[in-house]
Write a structure and sequence with these properties.
Blueprint (H helix, E strand, L loop, with lengths): L2 E3 L8 E7 L3 H9 L7 E6 L5 E5 L2 E5 L1 H4 L2 E5 L2
Antiparallel strand pairs: 1-6, 2-3, 2-6, 3-4, 4-5
Length: 76
């Protein structure tokens, strides 16, 4: 299994969320956005500023600091 943080995933890649390595407040915020373990995410923009990702057909922006706490498995 190829694990990395969401922050390190290049644009255009699909990943599956494995775990959230953060405090309670950040975990609740991520879960409310649909970033739950098992969810498949597509990284749309990871070049500058916040990441732009797609989860269940919804576009979400997430800061790089918070993205570094999301452990993912690269799918393709």
């Amino acid at each position: 299994m190829n694990l990395t943080s969401l922050r390190n995933v290049p644009e255009g890649m699909y990943v599956r969320i494995v775990s959230l390595n953060c405090g309670r407040g950040a975990r609740v915020r991520l879960l409310q956005m649909g970033l739950v373990p098992g969810a498949v995410v597509k990284v749309l923009n990871n070049s500058w500023g916040p990441l732009i990702i797609e989860v269940n057909g919804t576009l979400i922006t997430i800061g790089k600091g918070l993205a570094s706490k999301v452990l993912v498995e690269v799918l393709s």
